[in-house]
From TrEMBL:
SUPFAM superfamilies: Acyl-CoA N-acyltransferases (Nat) (SSF55729). It holds the Pfam family Acetyltransf_1. Residues 5-158 form the N-acetyltransferase domain. PROSITE patterns: GNAT. This is GNAT family N-acetyltransferase. The keyword Nucleotide-binding does not apply. It comes from the Bacteria. InterPro entries: Acyl_CoA_acyltransferase (IPR016181), Bact_Acetyltransf (IPR050832), GNAT_dom (IPR000182). It comes from Kineosporia babensis. Keywords: Acyltransferase, Transferase. One of its GO terms (molecular function) is acyltransferase activity, transferring groups other than amino-acyl groups.
Length: 158
């Protein structure tokens, strides 16, 4: 029997745990994120708390008590939920953690008043992330540009 993963929503009081996982993802997969490790590694507690407070939803995937993934979702107020910052640790990849995290955001977004779609951006060369989002019903909003570091928009109507 494989590992059992759980997901926990984070609050600003969880800033230390969030910081550890967020720094891991920025260090191990810098090409996948707009933020840079160097901008956050020495960030004070208040900056981490603000990040968790300013972004409407933040979740941590756990294998027991070990963090193995992270996802966030913002609510810009235009009827959309913006899925962002998906990360799964190397040891947990291929075990369904990404699916669990994406479904968590979809379920939460669907319960938010006025939200009628989930949007995201994914780099053209991040094929595994694209496959994950396509499995959940997301569709590209424009054709590929052929530029690996170009970000493609995807949307899922709710």
């Amino acid at each position: 029997m494989g590992p059992t993963f759980t997901v926990r929503q984070l609050s600003p009081d969880d800033w230390e745990e969030f910081a550890r996982v967020r720094l891991e993802c920025l260090q191990r997969a810098p090409e996948a994120f707009a933020s840079r490790y160097e901008s956050w590694v020495d960030a004070p507690q208040e900056q981490w708390r603000q990040r968790l407070q300013n972004v409407a939803g933040n979740w941590l995937a756990l294998n027991g008590d070990i963090p193995v993934g992270l996802i966030s979702c913002s609510l810009p107020g235009d009827g959309s939920a913006q899925l962002m910052s998906l990360y799964v640790s190397a040891a947990a990849r291929g075990q369904g953690v990404g699916d669990i995290l994406v479904q968590t955001v979809l379920d939460w977004s669907g319960s938010q008043p006025g939200v009628n779609r989930v949007e995201l951006g994914v780099f053209e060369d991040n094929l595994s992330a694209q496959r994950l989002y396509l499995r959940h019903g997301f569709e590209f909003t424009a054709p590929a540009t052929g530029q690996p570091r170009a970000e493609r928009a995807m949307v899922l109507p709710l």
